Amino acid sequence: MVFSTEGEVPYREGQSIGVIADGVDKNGKPHKLRLYSIASSALGDFGDSKTVSLCVKRLVYTNEAGEVVKGVCSNFLCDLKPGAEVKMTGPVGKEMLMPVDPNATIIMLATGTGIAPFRSFLWKMFFEKHDDYKFNGLAWLFLGVPTSSSLLYKEEFEKMKEKSPDNFRLDFAVSREQTNEKGEKMYIQTRMAQYAEELWGLLKKDNTYVYMCGLKGMEKGIDDIMVSLAERDGIDWFEYKRQLKKSEKWNVEVY
């Protein structure tokens, strides 16, 4: 979804925007603010710094009582008509800010709509031209989804890979359609395990940054992969990860 800001909401790649749905809750109070990761680069999808894009999934589920529950803000946004006005706040957030080093190795781990901040990174890296920035490093995206129809922005990412094959690597994990050689479902950590040695080597480099956005469960799976590899080098993985976080090279935004 693309929203016009008239250039009055400057933001950086990796930040979030707050949205307040119209109406009131069951207690008659205004709805609470809901944060969404920004899915566009600072220039926006039209390159004029006057828009902000969000990646929104309509939330509808049945609870234990058999009642259909609809997410307030996601349904509000998905039901909007072109031209509608939306209450927004922000931008906010420092955890997921894109590295300024154009030679960095940037490993991005996403599930579902957690892809949003990485689309903003990748647009700046591969779809835009800047006088003061040209990406010469390695961007490696792992995207995990349940079905191939859920691979958001797939065509965009494939164009980026075709355009910059030496600087962009792309791996999908489709859990309900793919398995590994052991017949296990292909979750994001399962796909990463296929590159475990290479990833561990990259994590030991000074200019490697890891970003994780999406479902909380994937972090444990990644820890499980890295523990034994680090141990082989006489390194305590959890202490090493703590140091990475301290130096802003391990950045996590999960739910």
Automatic annotation (TrEMBL):
Compartments where found: Plastid, Chloroplast
GO process terms (BP): photosynthesis
Reaction(s) catalysed by this chain's protein: 2 reduced [2Fe-2S]-[ferredoxin] + NADP(+) + H(+) = 2 oxidized [2Fe-2S]-[ferredoxin] + NADPH
Residue sites binding NADP(+) per the record: 37, 57, 113, 145-146, 175-176, 185, 214-215, 253
Enzyme class, first EC level, given as a word: oxidoreductase
Gene Ontology MF terms in the entry: ferredoxin-NADP+ reductase activity
CDD domains associated with the record: CYPOR_like_FNR
UniProt keyword annotation of Phosphoprotein present: no
Presence of the UniProt keyword Disulfide bond in the record: no
UniProt KW keywords: Electron transport, FAD, Flavoprotein, NADP, Oxidoreductase, Photosynthesis, Transit peptide, Transport
Requisite cofactors: FAD
Domain FAD-binding FR-type: 1-98
Cellular component per GO, a single term: chloroplast
EC number: 1.18.1.2
Superkingdom, natural source: Eukaryota
Family: Belongs to the ferredoxin--NADP reductase type 1 family.
Protein name, as recorded: Ferredoxin--NADP reductase, chloroplastic
Organism from which the protein derives: Spirodela intermedia
